[in-house]
Fold this protein.
Amino acid sequence: MPNIIEITNFEAPELDVYARLSEVQLLRYYEPKCGLFITESAKVIGRALDAGYEPISFLAERKQIDGEAGEVIARCGEIPVYTANFEVLTKLTGYNLTRGALCVMRRKEMPDVRKICEGARRIAILENVVNPTNVGAIFRSAAALNMDAVLLTSACSDPLYRRAARVSMGTVFQVPWTWIGGRGCEWSGQGMELLHEMGFKTAAMALCDNSLNIDAPELMAEEKLAIVLGTEGEGLMPKTIESCDYTVRIPMSHGVDSLNVAAASAVAFWQLGQRK
């Protein structure tokens, strides 16, 4: 049975994780061990539980405990479930809860790049994609459109940040992912070498004069392909483009020069993720 606790004191220290700690502070909560993150909505929480993440506590709108969030709460044994009505929770957290439930969970150790890519044929690499909404949308496309794994460079937004996980509809817990190059490290040198060692050809999504169209036969014929997507606005670093085996563009019409990185990822994953 869940341990239902009515919120009577906004300053209670056990509510700090929901009301007063930033996502960076949660990330470093147990440093040097793995920290915490917050999941939002019953569907996302359920997918995190399916992936083996450990729940610590819930913050749930009162009516949701016997409603949409009830099933995931029931899966979590006797952990604390802090509750109040919607208006109180909004005042506490500073934002409207999506579908009335949050869950604090413990992070896992990040896996090695080689382990993530073992057996993979199509992977996505995100270079310095800083907007969590874009990261979440890219993960959702990756899950739906045949990507076997996602690798992120150090400056990317964390896929487990609340907004990224929510926008992804929980697919950040379904698609294998990890960091490439290490946090705060250059990736395009040793990272590219590692990808080539694992047998991947790399395709930079970039607007260059010598770019191949996305449906080029040589791209479709590659057994193992890594699709490299760059940051919002500036795109990929010149060094990254130079290091890739292919430069690829999506043909545009009506004078449009490019797509948002999340939209471009969906097109690229659909075309390049097709299996023989």
User: Anything to note?
Assistant: The chain has a mean pLDDT of 90.
